[in-house]
Fold these 2 entries.
Entry 1:
Amino acid sequence: MTQPSPVLRVIDLQVSYYTEAGRALALDHASLELYPGEKLGMVGESGCGKSTMALAMMRMIKPPGRIEGGQVFVGDTELTALPEEQMRKARLSLISYIPQGAMNSLNPVLRIETQMRDAIKEHKPEMSDAEVQERIYSALESVELRRSVARMYPHELSGGMKQRVCIAIGISLSPKVIIADEPTSALDVVTQRQVMETLDRVQRQIGSAVILIGHDMGLMAQFVDKVAVMYAGKFTEISPVRDMFTDPMHPYARALIESLPTLDNKGVFKGIPGLAPSLIRRPSGCAFHPRCAHAMEVCRTVTPTLERLPNGRLVSCHLYDHQGSPVNAERRTAG
Amino acid sequence: MTPLLEFRNVTKIYTKGLLSRAATTALDDVSLKIEDDRPTILTVAGESGSGKTTLAMLLLGFIPPTQGKILYKGKDIARLQGEDRITFRKEVQAVFQDPFAVFNPFYTVDHLLTVPIEKFRLARNKSEARDKMDEALSAVGLRPEDVLGRFPHQLSGGQRQRINVARALLLKPRVLVADEPVSMVDASLRATILESLRKLNREYGISIIYITHDLTTAYHVASSIIVLYRGSVMEAGDIERVIRDPQHPYTRLLIDSIPWPDINRKWGQTEIVAREQEHGSVETGCKFASRCPFVMDKCRQAPPPLYQVADKQAASCYLYDQQPALARERLSEVLPA
């Protein structure tokens, strides 16, 4: 009867970094909805705001950065309104974050089980030691690591194993939302596939939603249900993965897809001309207009909004009207 | 005819300390030739720890081989002196992985280009030097006025990496070693760098050794490939054949795990045997035996030779022992230019 309600709602989230050169608007009114079990990929060039978005959802933005507006809900809990102490509890139990470069996020002088126990005890002080130990083993087993890994130190593990330990920590309290920030960028393809398969299976088991951040479009094609393309702190297009790869609507998303090497276009190199914009002096209107092959007069002056089209896709571009049909250029400039 | 560059049965073993007997064979009996008259792009592929960077370091003369010889124009690079040594240093150039680390943040990027001009006395005066810089930058698709006089932090990773390529180009090298040149660059900028590498090969006749774990980009630039696994050649040949029709079980696993950005091409048909199992295995046979789904008894007894599975393809695997064996020294015969 009723549609399931979204597990994650991000509404108009805004983050700025205050640098000596001026204010950099890293995240500009970013909104997002995610349903239980959904896997969303967030892609874009370095500096487009993907990691800022993740950190802002976790409320882990550090000065000179500041969350300047917007709300983040996980289920009915508004994270952005929680006192700091409760937010600490919410991290890992409601929403967890698997950082980039797992090799460096584990403490080298503590055994794996000690690090996992710290995290679990912090959130569930009422659990007995035996229960905690059981939770550690089941978390390790769910990422296909032997129980004996619990007694090891990080240097005894390979990169892929360390990454899986990080996933095990991230899922140990069955959070509703898991954010994985380039979880496999330092791994070779075989280990990468192994880690992603693990994440996929675990996510199914606990039914949580996953946000995968990265710039590897290949990984997105293989793993996620929906792709969100970011550019200069804004979402330009959010579409189901199949639509995104077969019929990208936003010119930036299209350029991104066309720049990808596949088996069939050997020797064709199509880069995206121009440079990523400065977040301090962002271009007027649509931030992509200086690099856009289809830029019109209106693009220079009016910032497009992210529109929900009848087919469920979200696009922020003047090239399309509310129905998602291409508008003709003359009419746009005249109006 | 003397090859431009030759690896003759090169082995590199790293030992830990003086007392420990633990040793790692980073590269195991590799022979390779780059011909003078046929500029090629050769990919050396493999996962972390496969020995691909060791191969680059050996080739650049940064580390000596434990066994075997590396010859440049017929001369052992470990014994080069005087003029020959300068020629080698000039003609064999490198582009490394990290486009951030090679720049000194206190100098403008011009510094990276003027130093080699001075050191190798490439120009007689300032205006000639400037012309050479302009030419090299234009060749990699940069506008000199966009980048000269700027500091490294003012440029994108893609621009910086192309300046590195331009620096190498200034010296009119014969061989360029590119060690993961695009892995730290945004996907949208990779295409431009790969394009400039290919241009160097085609228009300037420079042979490129492209070292990577990314088979997608390798497929697009290279003409031949060597797949390494823990220091040994698993498979080698024409890149078109090896990527589209891999024969060695390891190459098959590798290629099956490439996340192609293609919605209709799902990865992961072959099952992965966990890598942890390697530890403690005795290193007498094939190095891939502990993870191989087709492992046989003899795989654990002696390492398989290379078998020529097609005209331009060889695999080091007993599954192909019906095929003629190919001596390790003749590996280059299956690598098209």
Note: Chain A has a mean pLDDT of 86.
Entry 2:
Amino acid sequence: MKLHNSTDRIEKEIVLRAPRSRVWHALADAEQFGAWFGMKLEGAFAPGARAHGQIELPGHGNVTVEIAIERMDPETRMSYRWHPYAVESGVDYSSEPTTLVEFQLEEVAEGTRLTVVESGFDRIPAARRAEAFHMNDAGWAEQLQNIARYVAS
Amino acid sequence: MSLHSAGWREVSRAAPVFAALGDETRLALVARLSSDGPLSITRLTAGSAVTRQAITKHLDVLATAGLVSDVRRGRERIWELELEQMEAARTYLEHVSKRWDEALDRLKQFVEE
């Protein structure tokens, strides 16, 4: 927990016991990205490209997520913009601000250190944040089932 | 954790908040908004010995300290505690954060298998 109490960004760090090239492909290959993230992706990842993902949320049907790739430096960093928690079908999020997701890879003794930073939350309308929070109470139970299924398969 | 540097920064940043709350009328306004939710200036002034103009001034001081904010609804300004918005923003971030934890766990399995 950071002391500065920022409501604008999330920062994560994880060490993966896999070579940097393996981690890079899991991120940079849209199909592989979709496999672990939990969505079906259409379109390839490339700087400036837009890929569309379908997330199946029982009770909400299929929700489309648009990923706008910004930067791809092989085996080093990748960044994209999206609408966080754009999980309500029938709502047009396109005019709303996006958040920036940045992945950074670094070789360490155990394998690869991956850092994820998602920033720009303070520009997301307050009402949208409150609504996403309420929705996700229901969504989480479903998400956990998805994970259980994925792990078991 | 470095209590000396980071802790002090937190405290000094909170100074305007304490200053804004160091007034009986303003403290009462915060308490009222906390118990009764968003209120119009008319409702905040009703039954008070303090004039509407004075209340507005006090609310502006609270707003400058980031404690309250207002939205215009028709011809009225509705005031609410900013803390509630902060709380909602923080809860939201915790959820997004949890979602990343789950996703990264799945990524870990994916690349380590």
Note: The interface with chain A takes residues 1, 6, 10, 85-86, 88-93, 95-97, 99-104, 106-112 of chain B (CB under 8 Å).
